[in-house]
Amino acid sequence: MTQTVAAPPAAVPVRAWVVLALGLLAQAAGTLLVSAPVYLIPLLHLQLGLPLAAVGALTAAPTLGMVLTLVLWGAAADRFGERWVIAGGLALTTAAAAAAAITAAATDALVPLGIALFFGGAASASTNAASGRVVVGWFPRHRRGLAMGVRQMSQPLGVAAAAVTVPPLASAAQTSGVFVAISALLAVLTAACAIGIRNPPRPQISRAAPAPAGTGTAATDTAAAGSAARPAAPPNPYRTSAFLARIHAVSVLLVVPQFALATFGMVWLIAGLGWTPAAAGLLMGASQFVGALGRIVVGALSDRVGDRVRVLRRVAVAGVIVMVLLALIALAHGAIPAGFAVGGVVLVLATVVSVADNGLAYTSVAEAAGSAWAGRALGVQNTGQFIAASAVGPGIGAAIALLGYPLVFGLIALAPLIAIPLIPREDRHG
């Protein structure tokens, strides 16, 4: 009797880990540039006296640039490969950061600086669209969840880097000095990515098998053979299944609690629970770091169980639970012993859960789209999330002013609740 022994999982090449590290650093550096204007607000508004509305518009400029170019960068990665899209995009981001430094040194007007940052955000979108694609291409399926979880740490790490470095740099060297330092970092990473990143091998899909020789004229036999040798254009995954559209919709819904807590969590700690600004800032920073680690854990779990969407569904259920719990704490913290501390703990838990879905959804999109469509699909994924995120600030802010934190936190729980039935029942692979 013959017994079949399963082959061991394929080993992950060293090159894959190099690409992962470079992709992580590339997107973190792009996030640093995009996040820098947020941490310039104390200098521009409080010290220089510029209007808060104008400074707020400046912070939105790089995000707007990203929204408009994510899909285009994804299509470029599909067409030309990831290596030069990432390196070329970083080179353009470096130029935009240098332009921001020059304009900030030459004038106090915000419009020229905003234009430079708009183009910086548009260029930095290259790393969002292509770095995840190249990671999926290099890592085998049984390691992709872990790898994408690591890669998804880039955003919180970039934000953390901006929070730590931009305020002291702005105090010491003004706005221009901030962008000089960022452009220098981007230049170094541009060279590193151009040297270190390699495009993953792409599978070739052939058309129908060649017709048997001698079935027609020599000309028709030759034409048939040539047609058979050409690779076929892979089918559009959006036309063959609703999987991608459903994951996009789920991600848009799940980004609502993520950005709501990131934007208003610190304000709630201070205004609602009586925390000092310094303590609230430390707690929010800690929650971002723990959330980044949580993405790795959830990604590794999806590798272990072999099912991304099942884990994603559990994350959505957990999202409903923690938002309802946060609403109850916001309503009754005064009646709970040490309610201010309990509220802080629940906020950290809710923040960690709210960011846990990113890597799972991103990996599912890349795997379902296949290598020929992954760049465009990931561009659509990011675009939808950024558009939703841009609406969270004014929308949730107005709702809090009208209804208060407890009711709004409860309403936010509806987003993951609606997402649960939209999550597909099983993974799909392109």
UniProtKB/TrEMBL annotation:
CC annotations in GO: plasma membrane
Localization terms from the record: Cell membrane
Stretches assigned to coiled coil: none
Positions of the UniProt region annotated as Disordered: 205-234
A GO MF label: transmembrane transporter activity
Membrane-spanning parts: 16-40, 52-73, 85-107, 113-136, 157-173, 179-197, 249-271, 277-299, 311-332, 338-356, 402-423
Keywords: Membrane, Transmembrane, Transmembrane helix
Pfam families associated with the record: MFS_1
Compositional bias ranges of the Low complexity kind: 208-231
Membrane topology: Multi-pass membrane protein
Domain annotation Major facilitator superfamily (MFS) profile: ranges: 16-428
PANTHER family: BLL3282 PROTEIN
Protein name (database record): Sugar phosphate permease
Annotated organism of origin: Leucobacter chromiiresistens
